[in-house]
């Protein structure tokens, strides 16, 4: 299984690193050798909103053939969701791929037409922009529409990651991964 996290300059750190860590635990904790998570962008590296430069594993076009594609969020979304040249690099197939977003990354899904007529969530500051794509924006941390999901609030990255793991590997693997990050003394409460 191959999973892409789409990055760009001025991405929100936690919205990349929380799913990156959780999704990689399938390979590390579950021993699934053919599970691969890649950070994809439009340059060899991208700089987060906090100033951290991270290398990419490839270009965004690779996402077109991956099993799951998650779009990050952050200030960098604003110019990208209005850029036809950037959007044209994505030829995703929602009936065959899992496609998700964190917070304002939903604007990219909206601009690509994947959320039209659907319920979705995003960070409150991006809600009006997302509504303009014919989306019913709801005040929830995670919204699933079949192979398309949106999450809002950095810690909802756990729900988005759990959805990918559950969809591709099942409930047992999801529980194994989430148990490794739960605060000591607390049980699992993720409901998809």
UniProtKB/TrEMBL annotation:
The DJ-1/PfpI domain sits at 1-163
Q: Which InterPro entries match?
A: Class_I_gatase-like, DJ-1/PfpI, INH-QAR
Give the protein's recorded name. DJ-1/PfpI family protein
Natural source organism:
Paenibacillus aestuarii
């Amino acid at each position: 299984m191959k999973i892409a996290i789409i990055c760009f300059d001025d991405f929100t750190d936690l919205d990349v690193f929380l799913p990156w860590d959780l999704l990689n635990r399938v390979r590390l904790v579950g021993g699934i050798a053919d599970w691969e998570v890649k950070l994809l962008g439009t340059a060899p590296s991208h700089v987060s909103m906090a100033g951290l430069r991270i290398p990419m594993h490839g270009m965004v076009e690779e996402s077109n053939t991956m099993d799951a594609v998650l779009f990050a969020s952050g200030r960098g979304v604003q110019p990208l969701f209005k850029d036809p040249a950037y959007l044209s690099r994505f030829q995703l197939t929602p009936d065959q791929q899992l496609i998700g977003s964190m917070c304002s990354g939903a604007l990219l899904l909206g601009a690509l037409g994947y959320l039209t007529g659907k319920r979705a969530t995003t960070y409150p500051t991006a809600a009006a922009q997302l509504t303009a794509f014919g989306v019913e924006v709801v005040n929830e941390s995670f919204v699933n529409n079949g192979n398309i999901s949106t999450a809002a609030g950095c810690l909802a990255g756990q729900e988005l990651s759990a959805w990918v793991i559950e969809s591709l590997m099942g409930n047992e693997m999801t529980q194994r991964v989430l148990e490794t990050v739960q605060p000591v003394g607390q049980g699992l409460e993720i409901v998809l």
